[in-house]
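Standup notes
- DV: blocked on the single-chain target, sequence here:
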Amino acid sequence: MLITFVTSAVLVTSVLLVLSNLGTVADDTSKAVRGAMHRIRAQGATASWAAFVVLWLTIFGLGLL
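- DV (later): unblocked, structure below
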């Protein structure tokens, strides 16, 4: 019972921290995605990266079913 309470408190605290800084999280995420896309385009490996992303989306999608 105590372990459940502690883990629930940690989860709620983490969610509140993320929600309180949602703008910063969104900004950092968009910068990271833009930087990754720039590097992928510069290397000319767009097709292989797209296939890699589709593979992982398929794995996670099938895992949710």
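- Follow-up: The longest helix spans residues 22-43.
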